[in-house]
Specification:
Blueprint (H helix, E strand, L loop, with lengths): L1 E8 L13 H10 L4 E7 L4 H10 L3 E10 L2 E6 L5 H14 L9 H8 L6 E7 L6 H7 L5 E4 L2 H9 L5 E3 L4 E2 L12 E3 L6 H7 L6 E2 L8 E3 L6 E3 L13 H12 L19 H14 L1
Parallel strand pairs: 1-2, 1-8, 2-3, 5-6, 6-7
Antiparallel strand pairs: 1-9, 3-4, 4-5, 9-10, 11-12
């Protein structure tokens, strides 16, 4: 079983927010997250020199990739690392075609750049904004088997839905110095050697992708300390001041990003923030119990 994250940003491009890449944070993320493979997928560009530096600094498998704006959605195109110069030339064409965040190319233009997309691993935003349109997905069904989702809930839903693509969940992180927590958005894949061919085979089979290493789709890691939650209903029980709120705050903080927003109603947040109100609430609750 291998743990992978094939959606990582290391360059601030016109289609992305401003940030400064930090190699130390990337090394920390790979080590702390116990990752076996990653892909570098910057928006509409591929930096060959930086990729080679990253590859030389990490001991795990690093795939070259690019995230492309196509027909109103985002598409990951990932290659093997044995023909980097050819991949660089094709990605440079994409950079010229998409100079800003308002521009998007067509599937026909995409195929014109990469010729045979079956030579690559192609993963669209599936249950993730901006979500791929049905007509766009239809054009890609000859080379797409997996789709990126935003959460464990959507992952589990796609596993159960026979008509859905094979789900994958990736971090979509910017590797910058202020990165301090690891969101629980990686995917476990049942493969041996980590090659592009092996990934493509695994990502065409829902029996080879998992939310956790030991528990399949029943549980998923929600905190970097190893805490797991069920993909069903979770209930937190405990006496006062035993860490319930602290745990919920950690879950919210480690999983709430610019791309994924956690719906979290904190204790007393529906009441006016007044100490007298809180004391009265606690007193009434005790009386009722």
């Amino acid at each position: 079983m291998k743990k992978i994250d094939l959606h990582i940003h290391t360059v601030s491009t016109p289609s992305d927010k401003q940030f400064s890449f930090c190699m130390e944070r990337l090394e920390w993320y790979v080590s702390e997250g116990n990752l076996d493979a990653i892909a570098i997928t910057n928006h509409n560009m591929f930096d060959l020199i930086q990729f080679q530096q990253i590859k030389s600094n990490l001991e795990i498998k690093v795939f070259p990739g690019i995230e492309i704006d196509v027909e109103g959605t985002h598409l990951l195109v990932i290659a093997e690392d044995d023909e980097l110069n050819d991949f660089k030339v094709r990605c440079d064409k994409i950079t010229e075609m998409i100079p800003d965040k308002e521009t998007s190319i067509t599937i026909e233009e995409l195929r014109g750049v990469f010729n045979d997309l079956s030579n690559y691993l192609v993963i669209p935003h599936y249950k993730k904004s901006p979500e791929i349109k049905e007509e766009t997905l239809t054009k890609l069904l000859d080379c797409v088997t997996a789709g990126e989702v935003t959460s464990s809930r959507k992952f589990a839903y796609c596993i159960k839905d026979e008509t859905a693509l094979v789900p994958v969940c990736f971090s979509d992180l910017r590797m910058e110095e202020r990165l301090k927590v690891i969101p629980a958005r990686q995917t476990y894949i049942d493969i041996g050697d980590i090659t592009l061919t092996a990934l493509k085979v695994a990502l065409s089979d829902k029996h080879k992708v998992y939310l956790s290493k030991e528990d399949g789709h029943q549980f998923f890691e929600v905190l970097s300390n190893g805490l797991k939650l069920s993909t069903g209903l979770n209930v937190v029980l405990g006496e006062r001041s035993t860490g319930k709120s602290h745990t919920l705050n950690l879950i919210a903080n480690q999983n709430d990003t610019e791309d994924i927003k956690i719906k979290y109603v904190k204790q007393f947040s529906l009441l006016q923030r007044d100490e007298d109100d809180e004391r009265e609430f606690s007193r009434n609750l005790t009386t009722t119990q």
